[in-house]
Design a protein that fits this description.
The protein has 340 residues and is an alpha/beta fold. The chain has helices at residues 63-75, 137-144, 159-171, 186-203, 213-219, 227-232, 251-260, 283-291, 309-314; strands at 20-27, 35-39, 50-51, 54-56, 78-91, 96-108, 119-122, 148-151, 176-179, 206-210, 222-225, 244-248, 264-267, 298-301, 319-322. The protein is 26% helix and 24% strand. It is elongated. The model is unreliable at 1-12 (pLDDT under 50). Bound molecules: 8-OXO-guanosine-5'-triphosphate and magnesium ion. 8-OXO-guanosine-5'-triphosphate binds at residues 1-2, 23, 25, 45-46, 51-52, 54-56, 70, 97, 99, 133, 135-136. Residues 1-2, 23, 25, 45-46, 51-52, 54-56, 70, 97, 99, 133, 135-136 line the site of 8-OXO-guanosine-5'-triphosphate.
């Protein structure tokens, strides 16, 4: 609907002339698990792109009321708004946007394109085939990809106990694992990677090796680039289809990770963490300010665990990455150089 744009948050590092808009959008799922997309009609901004139905929050309106109103106006249905999925902060040269995505618990009526827009019910795995605005890319990732990424701790002296803890971690719901194993001899590291790969495969979890492109290519597991390697990578070190991620700490590294075609990145440290004593962390406001410049999925790292996933999602993160917060075993000495 055409109405004045509601102004929302305006974080301090932004020129005052850049308007901020709060948009609510819906994940509406049918009995077959398909998700409803609407195509922006000709003549409108971003015409032809597919989106989650919704629109701008009016001044004084709650997000829930705005979403119910928009879905009535655009689709002719009455809804019960459900749980938040995520809020994506996004900036363009002319404005900043908070895309606040909610699940719909129940609805009455049959969705129709009341404003002439085409509609499509899409299997989640096919969402990536639809051309969507940049702020929607993290939303699609949140619907499809894991909300937590384990970074492995050092193995101590007992490799069997380490592998048992890894197996317990993936059994506990971790389905993305970054195998980080610094200061361990090559043959031992390789044996542990093989053990980790067996456990991950059995549990359907994804595995990425930290910092060793040759080992990733030789074994077929994914590759995680530490920031120093990201900064010197000129092309994607593993083929598309083999997972690639990177550690990022600032806007420049995030832009590099996106340009290299990383499937996701890890950004932090967000909170203080035992592995970085004396460092306060960048905090959620800074996390958002960095997140709004790129659209690849980002895990927040640094002093976080499963209880922080909802908070992380409300700041535009895919979820959390952690050592301590996700490892189902004892964590010994803090490995240097990782904030988890
Ligand atoms: N509804 C919706 N808007 C989105 C999505 N992603 C995204 O970037 N946007 C942007 O959010 C803004 C608000 O969307 P809208 O055009 O639906 O707003 P509206 O229904 O109130 O209509 P209006 O154009 O009459 O003000 C648009 O600039 C749109 O490009 C999405 O998935 N759903
Ligand atoms: Mg709309």
């Amino acid at each position: 609907m055409t109405r004045p744009e509601a102004t929302g948050r305006t974080p301090g590092d932004d020129p005052p002339q850049r308007p901020s808009i709060h948009v609510v959008a819906a994940v509406i799922t049918d009995a077959r698990g398909r998700i409803l997309l609407a195509r922006r009609a000709p003549g409108r901004e971003l015409a032809g792109l597919w989106e989650f139905p919704g629109g701008k929050v009016d001044p004084g309106e709650t997000p829930e009321a705005a979403l119910a109103r928009e879905l009535h106006e655009e689709l002719g249905i009455e809804v019960e708004v459900g749980a938040p999925l995520m809020v994506v902060p996004h900036r363009t040269p002319s404005r900043r946007l908070h895309l606040d995505v909610r699940r719909i618990r129940a609805w009455r009526g049959t969705p129709k394109g009341c404003e002439g827009q085409a509609l499509a019910w899409v299997q989640p795995q096919r969402l990536a085939r639809y051309d969507m605005p940049a702020p929607d890319h993290p939303v699609v990732a949140a619907l499809l990809q894991p909300d937590r990424c384990l970074v492995t701790p050092a193995p101590g002296v007992d490799d069997g106990a380490w592998l048992d803890a890894l197996a317990a971690s993936v059994a506990n719901g971790v389905s993305r694992v970054q195998f980080r194993m610094h200061g361990v001899a090559d043959d031992r590291r390789r044996r542990l990677l093989e053990g980790a790969a067996r456990h991950c495969e059995a549990a359907g979890a994804q595995l990425l090796v930290n910092g060793d492109a040759a080992l990733a290519r030789a074994t077929g597991v994914g590759l995680h680039l530490p920031a120093a390697q990201l900064r010197v990578s000129e092309s994607r070190p593993v083929p598309v289809g083999q997972l690639l991620s990177a550690s990022c700490h600032d806007a420049e590294e995030l832009a590099l990770a996106e340009a290299l075609g990383c499937d996701f990145a890890i950004l932090g440290p967000v909170l203080a963490t035992p592995s970085h004593p004396g460092e306060p962390g960048i905090g959620w406001a800074r996390f958002e300010a960095l997140r709004e410049r790129v659209s690849l999925p980002l895990y927040a790292i640094g002093g976080l665990g499963v209880d922080d996933i909802a908070t992380a999602r409300s700041h535009g993160a895919q979820g959390v990455a952690a050592i301590r917060g996700l490892w189902a075993g004892a964590v010994g000495e803090s490995p240097a150089g990782v904030a988890a």
